[in-house]
């Protein structure tokens, strides 16, 4: 765990250096574009988190083991946190660039729906408590909610709105230094996610242990 914390700290420092010093100032958008590196980092973590929820929920439905339920719940909470940061950083970037905090662009709309869906999952899982049947219902809902994740990606490519496409078909592409900065940020955010996930799962396991002691 100590090694992971050190790697996280180093990668975050490297990410900050790359974002504010190494990466060049974008010609059209100026310095406000620098927030986009953090924005993409939150997008990456949210994507990983919700994918883990999807896989863990399937495993929980398959064998009913509590460890998969804990993994799904913990990852969903972190995913919601990071998708919230995605929306906030996107709005901060959008105001000076688009002239508005928010527009109902296809990608933004599907992202907002994704945010709502996983909040609903967390509510359902919270209400379920120790009830296995209700917990499995929440797991089914999370699997259905995951369908919106690829839709978010596809929506920006099938029906182009004002959201920029960086990677994949139709992407505008970025300079190498900007790409390296983004990748460093991805690494930093990934390490941070792993630490948060391990701690959140540990907390849930401690709650289970205390519950057993009281019973």
Condensed summary:
The protein is an all-alpha fold and 215 residues long. It has helices at residues 2-22, 35-63, 66-98, 106-128, 132-145, 148-158, 176-214.
Overview of this protein structure:
With 215 residues, the protein is mainly alpha-helical. The protein has one domain. Helix content is 79%, strand content 0%. It has 7 helices and no strands. It has helices spanning 2-22, 35-63, 66-98, 106-128, 132-145, 148-158, 176-214. The longest helix has 39 residues, at 176-214. The protein is globular.
Strand-residue fraction?
under 5%
Number of strands: 0
- What average pLDDT do the residues reach? 90
Termini separation (Å)?
A: 32 Å
Observed structural traits:
single chain, 215 residues, mainly alpha, 7 helices, globular
Question: Helices and strands in order, then pairings?
Answer:
Elements: H1 2-22, H2 35-63, H3 66-98, H4 106-128, H5 132-145, H6 148-158, H7 176-214
Helix pairs in contact: 1-7, 2-3, 2-5, 2-7, 3-4, 3-7, 4-5, 4-6
């Amino acid at each position: 765990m100590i090694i992971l914390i050190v790697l996280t700290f180093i990668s975050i420092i490297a990410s900050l250096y790359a974002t504010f010093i190494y990466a060049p100032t974008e010609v059209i958008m100026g310095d406000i574009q620098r927030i986009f590196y953090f924005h993409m980092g939150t997008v990456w973590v949210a994507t990983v988190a919700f994918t883990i929820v999807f896989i863990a929920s399937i495993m929980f439905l398959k064998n009913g083991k509590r460890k998969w339920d804990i993994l799904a719940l913990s990852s969903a909470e972190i995913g919601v946190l990071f998708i919230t940061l995605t929306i906030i950083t996107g709005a901060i970037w959008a105001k000076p660039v688009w002239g508005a905090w928010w527009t109902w662009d296809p990608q933004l709309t599907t992202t907002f729906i994704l945010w709502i869906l996983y909040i609903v999952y967390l509510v359902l899982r919270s209400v379920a408590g120790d009830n296995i049947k209700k917990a499995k219902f929440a797991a089914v809902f999370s699997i259905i909610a995951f369908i919106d994740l690829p839709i978010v990606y596809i929506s920006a490519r099938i029906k182009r709105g004002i959201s920029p496409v960086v990677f994949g078909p139709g992407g505008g592409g970025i300079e190498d230094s900007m790409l390296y900065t983004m990748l460093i940020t991805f690494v930093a955010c990934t390490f941070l996610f792993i630490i948060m996930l391990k701690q959140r799962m540990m907390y849930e396991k401690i709650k289970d242990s205390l519950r057993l002691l009281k019973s």
